[in-house]
Design a protein that fits this description.
alpha+beta, elongated, 35 strands, 35 helices
């Protein structure tokens, strides 16, 4: 009744003196505590002498509180046998996470042994609140609150011994679960004890007000009381019962002296300046000086010397060849998987990925939303428990409910499952993988702090704290959970859990973003992450996962288009990268079509020779331009068809780049051929076909020079190990070769037909219509040739970008040496595998490791520890001798799996290891045993049919990586660390010599290319440059100097392109490498024609020959290469895809402009100074049969 439950104050007449108890025995449940995670059993008020303990009572006290043992005949205590049992049960919960560090576990138990069982209890404990309860049928005074006076020296020592103890499964600190809203970062000894003494945490049976006092400080201490000042063990000390010191992982004082990594090399400097810059300046000055000396010497030497085809058949055969090759397109396979595109099958990262996916299934699929609500005003919330807290405009109840509604929407009909599919059909459910429900799915978001429950979000209750009564609601719960995400019960009267509905914690950085200094309620972004199981591509559920992601993207996009939506957000699905590759093609095909159309119109117009308005339709070259475009298209189709025949897959990059490349190359050859024909005068008695043949004989070597150089260049580029680069090079090489063959056959026939039409004065498209105005007989120079000859050439020539450590088969985890070589808890090797990873985290800026690896070996050892409640055996019933989970209560599971070791170092035998490992991996973690392996480790250990471990993984975390340089450096450092680990683990007895540890994360296959991409790029570009030099020398009659000048200019174009890439924020990656290889091909077009034209010129001096080459061939190159590329490239600026804008518009624009600058500006000047003299008889091109011989002596130094 109400009278019986009235509150009583503790008697003020209690005398605080040694040998007396303040309470004794148990009085049932605490009537002031509602729902609790464990029964809140409280003691009975009983001021009396301490009792001598003997027999079983003594043995239990010695086991639980060894620091109170003074021998069986001389040990007194203030706790009954039943109290000791309850104390042991309560301590077991904490020991589950602290037992890794024996001295910490002892210190933790020490405090409660001192306040609960010490024979001098009244010296430390001051009862402040009792209540009258009925227990076992009689009224008793139950203690529901007391003060505990503790020396700050002891409290701080105990706290320091525990503050670094880790939870291997999460990589976090155990103290974070025991300090309430302060977490591990802000936890102090006082806050640690305050949380433990607060009944609102769901674990404390009564309220304890811990008063921590410094030595000789008696402020507020009742008369006669002495703050408890036992000795707290250091974490690097052995316990009194023989337990070993804590490991380095849990105790910094136990760490050996690990030499810091060597300092980074000092930057190369000369006199305080950048050394490379100084050397570059010196080299530039030397080159300028050498050039000046060359001019002086040249001037001195000069002053000393003083001196009719079957057109139809050809077209038909060409068409048949193209059709035969193109039929292979029916078997074309497009590679869209980014892994297949950018990672070679035999690369290290790819092999490690395949090993990981084979044994552990592919990395789970991540689908994420980042939501913001800009412009919303925040508010200040005055919390009863936490004081004034700023809440951003985003952190509001309405938006949390809207976020919850958004994450519940996604469901669809699945043909593969023949039913409506939801998240549970494909989600990653770590704690119930076999038959998950929707609440088992790993969804990380802010509503998970409320278990995705509307009722929990709407919950509110009046609460009294320090005499103040105020309403607490979702905000108080959220503040608490953001700072203590591992809590099973908040400290408000709401009494709700912070754990997600799927049973795991949601760390604040997974739920919110855009905050500073851990001020989570000031966050500017919600983070919503769906984790899906990943499957091999031939698994039907892979399609279902893709369908779910498609629906996810559709719902998000529909929501985004809704004008009433309160959020603005960014989003991505696992399939987004592959979708983006496909989307760029689908959305930007019109852009490419427009680009090609612009190029076609330009070619058709620019090829025309316009002498009068009346002959406009006669002299236009629309059909010739169309024919040239068709030749390019047919060469690309033939190339793609051929490789499809033989089973080499294509890619969207090939579809976009190769036509563009072949068009640039082909258009140049077309312009050179057509313009040369237009500028040539037909000789007396010469037929049209003979004239075309003669002109072709003049230009075909130049066309062969460029086409053969480019084709060999690309064929050699196919030696690349990157699949995308290799396939591109193969397709491009054959396409360029086919383009040349078709130009020498089909296009010549088309030009012959068009010339016949033009000679007959027939209009294009309207062939029956003729005009009366005759075609002028003189050669048509067009506009560019006179301009180049009269103005340009003379002026120019006088200007002068979570990680697993995976173990392979060959390591004995079940031996003591094997466990010690991996684990990081007490008794483990100080330089074990996980310890090395932990040491790496001390230097995150160098190692890129943020959090030590979780370790199933450590948690398995802790799970087996008899000091916890995790591993027990049934002692009776049908399951006698089998594993008994910690949540089974009663007397049927009294036997521990292992006996307590004398030194506190638990190590199972090989038989025990094999017997209990499956039980550990299948044990779901809960409050009674947080060390269960289900969810954290059940997929991390792979065993064969004989139970031998053939693969395991240990999960650590990289530091945040933001660009390709950091991703690449992280991969390199992780591999270095894994190599050291492998080397040391191979020294452990019984380890196979081919045993290996390697790091793996899903991004490695993409960023491995950056480890070798510089070497790969140099190799590929060098392979491309080599044939351009060789072919140029051979086709110019072993003219080494012309070949060398040709090569130097092409190298300068490539080098300058790389420089501009840096200035224009174009990353150097595999796509850029493809474009650089392309740059070599396009550079050949700008350079080689000019070089050959100069070499074959019959002018007497180098300047005159350079002028002639610039005027005649320069105009053709400008019209055929520069002006063909530029209009199409400029159209690409309007593409939506960033890939197209950066790597196609920007990079191709740079390549074209630099090629034009070097080919039409730099090269003519270079040739005028260093070009080859006339050294051989040149067949007279102006008079048939005539021959002019110019000897080197006659022309030496002519400038």
């Amino acid at each position: 009744n109400a009278e019986a439950m009235k509150e009583k104050k503790a008697s003020s007449e209690v005398e605080h003196r040694a040998g007396y108890c303040a309470f004794y025995d148990e009085c049932g449940r605490n009537p002031t505590v509602g729902e609790s995670l464990i029964p809140p059993i409280v003691p009975c008020l009983n001021y009396s002498r301490a009792r001598q303990v003997t027999g079983d009572h003594y043995r239990r006290l010695k086991q639980v509180c060894p620091m109170l043992d003074f021998g069986e005949s001389n040990t007194y205590a203030c706790c009954s046998l039943q109290q000791i049992a309850s104390l042991e049960t309560s301590l077991t919960l904490s020991k589950a996470v602290l037992i890794r560090c024996p001295s910490c576990a002892d210190n933790f138990a020490h405090l409660y042994c001192a306040t609960t069982c010490s024979p001098n209890q009244t010296l430390t404990v001051n009862v402040t609140k009792v209540m009258n309860v009925t227990h076992l049928g009689r009224p008793r005074d139950a203690v529901v609150a007391y003060q505990a006076y503790i020396s700050s020296t002891f409290a701080e020592g105990a706290f320091q011994s525990c503050k670094n103890v880790r939870i291997p499964a999460t990589g976090g600190f155990a103290i974070a679960t025991m300090c309430g809203r302060y977490g591990s970062k802000l936890c102090t000894a006082q806050r640690w004890y305050d949380f433990q003494g607060d009944t609102s945490n769901g674990l404390a049976p009564l309220d304890i007000d811990f008063r921590l006092l410094k030595e000789n400080d008696t402020t507020g201490v009742p008369e006669g009381m002495i703050p408890y000042n036992g000795r707290a063990l250091g974490c690097n000390e052995n316990t009194t019962t023989g337990g070993m010191a804590c490991s380095c992982q849990d105790c910094l004082d136990s760490c050996p002296r690990v030499p810091p990594p060597p300092p980074l090399p000092e930057p190369f400097r000369i006199q305080g300046m950048n050394g490379f810059l100084v050397i570059s300046i010196i080299l530039l000055c030397l080159l300028i000086c050498a050039f000046v000396v060359y001019l002086i010497v040249s001037h001195y030497v000069k002053s000393k010397n003083g001196k009719n085809l079957k057109v139809t058949c050809v077209l038909l055969v060409a068409a048949i060849i193209v059709v035969v090759f193109s039929v292979g397109l029916k078997s074309i396979k497009l590679t869209t998987d980014p892994v297949e595109l950018w990672s070679a099958p035999n690369s290290r990262a790819r092999q490690e990925k395949d090993f990981h996916d084979k044994h552990f299934t592919p990395f789970f699929r991540t689908n994420q939303l980042i939501l913001t609500a800009p412009g919303r005003k925040g508010h200040l919330y005055d919390s009863l428990l936490f004081g004034k807290q700023n809440f951003s405009g985003l952190i509001s109840k309405s938006l949390i409910l809207e976020l919850l509604d958004l994450q519940r929407r996604i469901q669809f009909w699945s043909e593969d499952l023949n039913r409506t599919a939801t998240l549970k059909d494909v989600c990653y459910a770590p704690l119930n993988p076999s038959n998950p429900s929707l609440t088992d799915c790993a969804v990380n978001s802010l509503p998970q702090y409320f278990q995705n429950s509307l009722d929990n979000i709407n919950a509110k209750v009046n609460m009294t704290e320090l005499g103040v009564t105020q309403e607490v609601d979702w905000r108080d719960h959220l503040i608490y959970c953001l700072n203590s995400p591992l809590s099973f019960k908040d400290i408000t009267d709401l009494g709700m859990s912070c754990m997600a509905d799927y049973g795991a914690p949601v760390f604040p950085f997974l739920a919110v973003g855009g905050y500073k200094n851990d001020e989570y309620t000031n966050a500017e972004a919600f983070i919503l992450t769906f984790s899906l199981n990943n499957y091999l591509r031939d698994n039907p559920k892979f399609k279902v996962a893709l369908q779910w992601e498609t629906e996810f993207l559709k719902i998000v996009q529909d929501y985004q288009r809704n004008p009433k939506a309160n959020f603005t957000f960014a989003y991505m699905a696992e399939r987004s990268l592959e979708d983006e590759i496909n989307r760029t093609t689908a959305e930007d095909i019109p852009i490419f079509m427009i680009s090609y159309a612009v190029i076609f119109v330009y070619i058709a117009v620019a090829l025309g020779e316009y002498s009068s308005c009346k002959r406009l339709l006669v002299d236009s070259k629309f059909l010739v331009g169309l024919g040239g475009i068709l030749v390019v298209g047919c060469s690309v189709l033939a190339s793609m068809g051929f490789y499809s025949w033989i089973g080499i897959p294509s890619s969207l990059v090939i579809l976009q780049v190769v036509p563009f490349l072949v068009l640039a190359v082909g258009a140049d050859n077309i312009f050179i051929f057509v313009l040369e024909y237009q500028r040539d005068a037909r000789r007396l008695g010469e037929t049209r076909e003979e004239q075309i043949g003669r002109v072709l004989g003049q230009v075909a070597p130049s066309m062969l020079l460029c086409s053969l150089s480019e084709s060999v260049c690309f064929f050699l580029g196919a030696l690349s190990t990157m699949p995308a680069v290799k396939s591109f090079a193969l397709y491009a090489a054959l396409a360029v070769l086919m383009d040349f063959v078709l130009q020498m056959t089909a296009f010549v026939a088309l030009l012959s037909l068009d010339a016949r039409r033009q000679d007959n004065n027939r209009c294009e498209l309207l062939c029956c219509v003729t005009v009366s105005t005759r075609r002028p007989n003189k050669p048509n120079e067009g506009f560019l040739l006179p301009f180049m000859r009269k103005y340009y050439a003379p002026v120019l020539l006088h200007l002068g970008v979570p990680v697993y450590f995976v173990t392979k088969k060959g390591y004995n985890f079940n031996t003591v040496e094997g466990m010690d070589g991996v684990c990081s808890s007490v008794g483990c090797d100080q330089f074990s595998m996980t310890q090395k990873i932990r040491y790496a985290t001390d230097y995150p800026e160098r190692s890129y490791m943020a959090i030590p690896a979780n370790s199933w070996v450590d948690d398995f050892i802790d799970w087996l520890n008899p000091g916890s409640k995790c591993c027990r055996l049934y002692t009776s019933g049908p399951n006698a001798g089998n594993f008994c989970p910690a949540n089974i209560t009663g007397l049927s599971c009294l036997k521990k799996c292992l006996a307590s070791p004398s030194d506190g170092v638990v190590r199972p035998t090989m038989e025990e290891f094999s017997r209990f490992l499956p039980d550990f991996l299948g044990n779901r973690p809960d409050l009674q045993c947080s060390k269960g392996g289900l969810g954290a480790y059940d997929t991390a250990v792979v065993r064969d049919q004989n139970g031998e471990i053939i693969a395991t993984r240990f999960m650590a975390y990289h530091t945040p990586l933001t660009n390709s340089q950091e991703f690449t450096a992280a991969l390199l450092k992780a591999r270095e660390l894994a190599k050291k680990i492998t080397s040391d683990m191979r020294k452990i007895p019984g380890t196979s010599p081919d045993f290996e540890v390697f790091p793996y994360t899903i991004t490695y296959v993409f960023y491995e290319q950056y480890l070798t991409i510089v070497k790969e790029g140099l190799f590929n570009i060098s392979l491309c440059l080599l044939p351009t030099f060789v072919v140029c020398c051979l086709l110019l009659g072993l003219d080494l100097r012309s070949g060398l000048l040709n090569l130097i200019t092409i190298i300068m174009i490539v080098v300058d392109t790389v420089g501009v890439m840096t200035l224009w924020s174009i990353d150097y990656n595999a796509v850029a490498l493809i474009n650089l290889v392309t740059a070599v091909g396009i550079s050949v077009e700008f350079v080689s024609h000019m070089t050959r034209s100069f070499a074959l010129s019959t002018k007497m001096t180098r300047v005159e020959r350079a002028k002639e080459a610039t005027a005649t061939m320069g105009s053709a190159v400008f019209a055929g290469v520069a002006m063909t590329n530029l209009p199409g490239i400029l159209v690409l600026a309007f593409a939506k895809a960033q890939l197209i804008q950066i790597f196609f518009f920007r990079l191709n624009l740079v390549i074209t402009l630099l090629g034009m600058a070097h080919g039409l500006v730099f090269l003519p000047v270079l040739l005028s100074y260093f070009g080859m003299n006339i050294y051989r008889c040149v067949a007279g091109s102006l008079s048939f049969g005539g021959e002019t011989c110019v000897t080197p002596a006659a022309s030496y130094g002519n400038h």
